[in-house]
Amino acid sequence: MLICVKNVLLVLGDVEKDFGFGVIKWRCPKQTIPPNSDTGFQKKLLYLESIGIDSFSLIENHPMLITTSLTDIKSTVEYITSMDFTATEFRRMVGMCPEILTTNVSDIIPVFTFLHDEVHVHCSDIKRVINRRPRLLVCSVSKRLRPTLYFLQSIGIEEVNKHTDLLSCSVEEKFMPRVDYFENIGFSRRDATLMFRRFPQLFCYSIKNNLEPKYSYFVVEMGRDLKELIEFPQYFSFSLENRIKPRHKKCVEMGLCFPLPVLLKTKEVKFQSRLEVFVNSSTPLKTSPLWCAGSDFYQV
């Protein structure tokens, strides 16, 4: 992308227009009409720059901004900042989700109402929720947020207000493929659902880049029982290369076998100290009742 104000060329895409202060090229959707110099486009650029937003890169990533009126953009900015978001927070939100600037206030207000009335997010927590997942503001309450809420509740996740980042996800495109994946590798629908209920963030992990390689290592290299994953689905949240493999290999070398929570959740210093203790102690066999819970020593 090249930028030009006064004699410097700004290239944003495939459509070119001379606005008087410079020539602009941008990638324009087929149904988007290139703005004329009298549409206030220049004022729009200057306004965005005045609030600290890089308008040119924003237009390249979200060309619909070209046809959104300055009045609508200002209304959106003023409404969101009136909700106690700082200028820095707002810029970060737009950087993460440019669509916010082209979303009407009439569509944003219902999101705040939904989060408070239906998801039961406390007023003091709504700002934190939006900062964490700005995309919530551009989601339709009736078509996306509410159906996702109902799905999460249907599988037994009662406190959805603790997992609001999931609300912007599609049940059909995001959630069900992951549930189906666990069914396809041997879990019953009931057990798969139980795993997501115990660890809702499991919905966020890539099947190809996370679930598949970690499951393969768990079964092939670790040779452990699937029941352990049902009880501790958080296994998938740990780094395969930096946590799972090194600790498993160390335990194999020493002839040790810890429960998954102890193996993975224990802080590094404490984990190493436990290994040292076992150097001159009897080894806890997997068939031993001490291998699972029951002894404070084996707790995380």
Automatic annotation (TrEMBL):
GO biological process terms held by the UniProt record: DNA-templated transcription termination
Superkingdom in the source lineage: Eukaryota
GO MF term set: nucleic acid binding
Record keywords: Transcription, Transcription regulation, Transcription termination, Transit peptide
Family per record: Belongs to the mTERF family.
Name of the protein: Transcription termination factor MTEF1, chloroplastic isoform X2
Organism: Vigna radiata var. radiata
Gene name for this UniProt entry: LOC106759669
